């Protein structure tokens, strides 16, 4: 039930954009996104709910396609502080299943 | 701010020892979780609890047990530690109201090495 994330890793220069994808084989009620910086705990970014409501971050956006059971995280005009590992969590039957993560590195 | 604390950042134990990992949260959250994090495998749920004295198995409960005697505290127990339990262990908590999965707040993690 673990969602699949792609890409596994990406390197960007400051100011470039990136998209991280998350897909599940099961019907989803919601998708959560978290970021974990090196040596730190994962931190919540946003939740996307079935029906389109989105709650969370002001500089990073995301989409949720319920029919395709997919979500994408969009990071635009990336900053050095965006570096870290991004995890999606898919809500299935009141449980949250995390993906394997996408390591994002932003270089000057 | 929600604070989730874990008893140790680093722990080294010998094979066969009984290991206790403690987690405390200060926001009166109903739900608490234990995950292990391994390179390439992401976050995998070991056990979770929706209320005091309640526990549910996650994806990988084998070799672990948990205890929740008070709302703010959730303990992970390795009955007989083995080398394949060497990992980073993360505790998290969240609200439990409304039948919806809420955002989770994570502790700093305990890096356990079993030799």
How would you summarize this macromolecular structure in one to three sentences?
The complex is a heterodimer of chains A (108) and B (115). By secondary structure, chain A is mostly beta strands.
Identify low-pLDDT runs of chain A.
none
Helical proportion of chain B, percent range = under 10%
Structural class of chain A: mainly beta
N-to-C terminal Cα separation of chain B, in Å? Answer: 37 Å
Morphology of chain B: globular
Global morphology of chain A: globular
What percent of residues of chain A adopt helix (DSSP H or I)?
under 10%
The two chains with the largest interface, and their residue counts, are: A-B, 23 and 22 residues
Terminus-to-terminus distance of chain A: 37 Å
Main sheet record of chain A: 7 strands, mixed
Tally of extended strands of chain B? Answer: 11
Content of β-strand of chain A: over 45%
The average pLDDT of chain A is 88
- Category from helices, strands and their pairing of chain B: mainly beta
């Amino acid at each position: 039930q673990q969602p699949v994330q792609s890409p596994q890793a990406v390197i960007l220069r400051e100011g470039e954009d990136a998209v991280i994808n998350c897909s599940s084989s099961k019907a989803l009620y919601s998708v959560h996104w978290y970021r974990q910086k090196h040596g730190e705990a994962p931190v919540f970014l946003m939740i996307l709910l079935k029906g389109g409501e989105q709650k969370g971050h002001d500089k990073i956006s995301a989409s949720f396609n319920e029919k395709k059971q997919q979500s994408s995280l969009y990071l635009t005009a990336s900053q050095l502080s965006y570096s870290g590992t991004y995890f999606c969590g898919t809500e299935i039957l009141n449980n949250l299943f995390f993906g394997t993560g996408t390591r994002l590195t932003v270089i000057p | 701010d929600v604070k989730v604390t874990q008893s140790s950042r680093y722990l080294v134990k010998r094979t066969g020892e009984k290991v206790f990992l403690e987690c405390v949260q200060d926001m009166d959250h109903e739900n608490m979780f234990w995950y292990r994090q391994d390179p390439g495998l992401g976050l995998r749920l070991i056990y979770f609890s929706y209320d005091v004295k309640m526990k549910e198995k996650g994806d990988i409960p084998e070799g672990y047990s948990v205890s929740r005697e008070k709302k703010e505290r959730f303990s992970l127990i390795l009955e007989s530690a083995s080398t394949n339990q060497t990992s980073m262990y993360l505790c998290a908590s969240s609200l439990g109201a409304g039948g919806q999965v809420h955002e989770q707040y994570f502790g700093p993690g305990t890096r356990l090495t079993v030799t």
